[in-house]
Amino acid sequence: MTSQHLPGLAGARLWAAARFPYLASGIFATQVTAAPGAESVAVDEQWRLRADPDLAGQWTAAEFGSVLVHHVCHLLRAHAERARALGIRPEDAPQWTRAADAEINDDLVPAGLDLPGGPVLPHHLGADPGGLAEQYFRPGYAAAAGGDGDCGSGADGQPRPGESPAGDDQPDGDGGLPGWQADLLRRQVAAEILRHGREAGTVPAGLARWAQQTLAPVVNWRTLLAAELRRAVADRAGAADYSYRRPSRRAAAVGDVVLPALRRPVPDVAVVCDTSGSMTSELLAMTLAEVEGLLRSLGVIRQLRVLACDAAAGPAQRVSSARQIELVGGGGTDMGAGIAAAAGLRPRPAITVVLTDGFTPWPAQPPKGMRVVIALLGDRSPDAPAWARAVRVPTAA
Ligand SMILES: [Zn+2]
Fold first, then answer.
1. How far does the centroid of ligand 1 lie from the alpha carbon of residue 297, in Å?
2. Ligand 1 mean position to 351 CA, how many Å?
3. Does residue 1 lie within any of the structural domains?
4. Distance, CA 229 to ligand 1 centroid (Å)?
5. What's the gap in Å between 100 CA and the centre of ligand 1?
6. Which of 63, 167, 327, 381 is most exposed by smallest CB count within 10 Å?
7. pLDDT tens per residue across all 397 residues of the chain
């Protein structure tokens, strides 16, 4: 650590904390040191910021304060971790940093961020505002004017010489924040952003969105639905997965040992679609397409039968694609009628998936010998019956 004086740091921090009070915890948790000759301001993932005093000395308090805020946002938004998740290569790191810069700046420049030089904005990358770095990132996109230059490994996830490796929770002697403390700090700042938004109402929308997702991450309904369908299919197929009835073709290769043959009975699946008046047809079509895709990946699409159901169930339609399905209906709702109609199909489906907004009566008991997976569509759906497996599909999915 260098003890060299960093001109203007105190004034920069005060400006930043006054202009962006909901980021103050992040601003003051950042460990700032002077890095003479570095010609940059850069952060690492342990919340250490190294600034060239000659560079910082040319800035006003607003400019230096804005640089601090900008770098804090790289760390809050976990840009390094996200760069690794995206598999950013060293040669793409500058473009990733520009994408990450645009994600930060498009929200904060209108809120008073005053960066020295031209800040990177989404339109410099040919993109609309309000997006994420992953959407802005264009490998090989010709560099446009402006840019904050290298923001450090805390922005692009590429370790710099002399830094501790990425994800290493052992700070290398400078007292940086270990990963678990950085996570706590992120959550603390997120809570302060939401509180400030409620009380003063002046938080940039993108930052508020980040805070909400940090504190209450939306579980991906596709992942949940896939897991439920996989579980249902495995339950029906599982017990007979490996059978010793016939030796497998590999048996010859291992002498006397008889290997089990893979035997996978494919269960029949029916889908009941709520087509009553309260349903949003777009959300229904999207979810049905998702169910179709999941079942296809599980190898059961050829057995798919779809029933449109409002107060009564329509005839089953055998389909090989969600696009072929006619969803006619309207009026009242009774998904119990749809489930009963599915149970009456021959051959009887082993699994029935119900797509509904949930504003329906349900049978008190589960159908015998048939699993029911319910996708609750929309944001205000009542709960599904306890005997069924349910997944919520929000409107903005
Ligand atoms: Zn940056």
1. 40
2. 50
3. no
4. 42
5. 7
6. 167
7. 444 578 899 999 999 999 999 999 999 999 999 999 999 999 999 999 999 999 999 999 999 999 999 999 999 999 999 998 888 889 989 999 999 999 999 999 999 999 998 899 999 988 888 888 988 887 766 554 445 578 999 999 999 887 755 445 554 556 789 888 898 999 999 999 999 998 887 899 999 989 988 887 666 777 777 777 777 777 765 544 444 444 445 544 445 554 444 445 667 888 998 887 767 777 788 788 888 877 777 776 666 788 888 888 887 877 655 666 666 666 678 899 999 999 999 888 888 999 998 989 999 999 988 889 999 988 888 889 989 988 888 886 5
98 is in which domain, residue-wise? 9-215
71 alpha carbon – ligand 1 mean position (Å): 6
Whether 22 and 165 share a structural domain:
yes
Place of tokens 């944001």: 379
**DSSP letter string over 33-100?**
EE-TT--SEEE-TTSEEEE-HHHHTTS-HHHHHHHHHHHHHHHHTTHHHHHHHHT--GGGHHHHHHHH
Q: Ligand 1: distance of its center to the CA of 147 in Å?
A: 8
Is there a single domain that holds both residue 46 and residue 122? yes
Considering the domain architecture, whether residues 272 and 303 belong to the same structural domain is answered as yes
Nearest-Å Rg of the Cα atoms of the chain is 28
Of 123, 146, 149, 148, which Cα lies nearest the Cα of 136? 123
- The answer, as to whether pTM is greater than 0.70, is no
Question: Ligand 1 center to residue 311 CA distance, Å?
Answer: 56
d(CA 58, CA 7) in angstroms, rounded, equals: 9
* Cα 73 to ligand 1 centre (Å): 8
Cα of 154 to ligand 1 centre, how many Å?
9
Q: How far is the CA of 128 from the centre of ligand 1 (A)?
A: 18
* Structural domain count of the chain: 2
Tokens at 364, concatenated:
């008190």
Q: Could you tell me the distance, in angstroms and rounded to a whole number, from the CA of residue 5 to the centre of ligand 1?
A: 23
Asked if 100 and 133 count as a contact pair (C-beta separation under 8 A), the reply is yes
